[in-house]
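User: What would this chain look like folded?
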Amino acid sequence: MLGQHTAPALERILATNVASVAPAAPLTKIGTMGAPPALNVMRAPDGQATAALTGEWNLRAMQPVVRTLRTQLTSLAQAGDTHWDLNGITRMDHAAA
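Assistant: Here's the prediction, encoded as structure tokens.
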């Protein structure tokens, strides 16, 4: 248990340290949606396909476009030699993984 003299000292330490910490990235509100999930396929001159995924790949964002995405992903999976670029994904949950 903290004594009477310890609590004010602890409060001063916390106030000093917390005030000097800046957030690493801006926070977003829970439930807000960013860019919808998108799949863009690019082909190199040698025919090599690269699939670039962008936006939010979570269940909520995918619901309106799930049929289109499923068709595109099935086609790419059947080709078998596609390179995947996941750098543009801003959010992903277990359903999209």
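DSSP finds three helices and three strands in the chain. If you want, I can go into more detail on any region.
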